[in-house]
Amino acid sequence: MLLDQATIDQLRSMVDHGFRTFQQGQFVEAIAEINRALAGFAAAPATVAEKQELRDTILRAHVGLALAHSRLGQTQQVSTVIGELIRLFPDREVSRREYGPEALQLVKQVRAELDGGLRGGIHVEVTDDPGAVVFVNERYISVGKADLGSLIPGTYRVYVSGRRRGRVHLVDVKGGETASLRVNLEAEALLQVSDTRVALIFPTQDDALQGLVRVGSAVRDWLGAERVILLHTQRIEQRRLLVGVLLESGADKPVREGAVLVGAAQPADAAALADLLVNGTAAPDVLTGTALRPQQSPTTTAKRTLTYLPAEPWYRDKLGWALLATGVVTAGVGGGFLWNASTVESDAERTVDEFARRSQLERADDRRLAGLVLLPAGAAIAVLGAIKLAVPGERRVRPERVSIVGGANFLGLAGAF
Predict the structure, then answer these.
(1) In the chain, at which end, N or C, are there fewer CB atoms within 10 A of the end residue's CB?
(2) In whole angstroms, what is the distance from residue 167 CA to residue 158 CA?
């Protein structure tokens, strides 16, 4: 799940307000609000992974939460929060200047307690996209694969994003062991999980037939099995079939496959299909081989003589005008964002409240980025539209119009061929 910008801004505001509430001595209220914000971020780790600046906010939330628990004398909760902070941010140090000596001392104490135990590791491999980016606990690690050692035991979130977005995997790391995870982004994009079913949903029947073997290795990895049977429905020549395929490790095509008619399927038919897939025992009611392939009907090709009409004049080119107008509007919006970013930045420099100032500067940065994207994009689209209007269009094929005409003594065909 990816959070929209409004939700992200709301969670950030909750962290800032919770930290200020802690500074005002309202520790119980601060704990409640910061916990709500952290729960919102924890529900969308993919958002944090793709917006790395949010890690600063989450670090601040953990420090504020630990300090509030400390002021209430809740030492066990302090150890839990600081331990999570250390696991989430091995690449960061808690700033004494920003958070004071108390926070720094709490981190040192908990780290000393954790240093005595065994460490573990994680090995991540992306099987179908070598350019995919690997994140562990929302921290960028590497591309294509990752090997992490010296990890404090616990549960780690692994997220992979490449040509497709993957799912978030929870990996348990134990002391003295290395946990392995193989990720197939195609399979994860096809996987749909609900309260009533777990299924691989392919866009079309042809995609299912071609994709089962590709994603079969990922299914075997999920189940920890050398062999796996996948079932899918298929319509062949007005018949609806329940098709089963047996996939084995290292095979580039199904080892066995068979099907039974869905409408007439009986328990005995399903048992016969299972017997075929598992043991290779054929049965009369189980379809195999060419019976699982649609029969191709013969086709004929007729020659046609095409008649061309003149190209449309440039001033009737709807696509060209649409591109030109869209480009001009987009460039104008981008310019507006740039102008507004400068205005907001000027207002921020005159703001006394530090939190309000930071919020305004962030808003100015967002609008400047939008302007820098939209302005050149709009200009490019407008240029494309102008070129489209300037270049002569292609000739059009005259449509074939045929009608039956008749009279007192004749019957014939009339039209354009």
Answers:
(1) N
(2) 8
Q: How many CA atoms lie within 13 A of 108 on its CB side?
A: 7
**Total residues found in the chain within this entry:** 417
- How much is the pTM? 0.59
Mean pLDDT for 316-329 is 81
> The tokens of 263 are what?
């409408």
Q: Are 181 and 122 in contact (CB under 8 A)?
A: yes
Domain boundaries, the chain: 5-114, 120-183, 190-292, 308-397
Q: Please, which residues have CB within 8 angstroms of residue 355's CB and are 6 or more apart in sequence?
A: 16, 20
Pick the closest to residue 362 from 95, 21, 2, 57 (CA basis). 57
Of 145 and 228, more confident: 145
pLDDT exceeds 90 at position 88: yes
Q: Are 162 and 126 in contact (CB under 8 A)?
A: yes
Residue 322: the pLDDT is 84
pLDDT at position 394: 60
In the numeric block, the tokens 């809740």 are attached to: 74
Beta bridge partners, 121, equal 178
Selection from 145, 161, 62, 160 nearest residue 103 by Cα: 62
Measured from the Cβ of residue 395, the count of other Cβ atoms closer than 10 Å reads 13
Give me the CATH topology for the region 5-114.
Answer: 1.25.40
Q: 300 pLDDT exceeds 50?
A: no
Report the distance separating Cα 298 and Cα 300, nearest Å. 7
Q: What is the CATH code for 120-183?
A: 2.60.40.1120
Alpha-carbon radius of gyration of the chain: 32
Dmax (CA) for the chain in angstroms is: 109
pLDDT by residue (tens digit) across 110-142?
Answer: 999 988 889 999 999 998 899 999 999 999 999
Domains 5-114 and 120-183 belong to one CATH topology: no
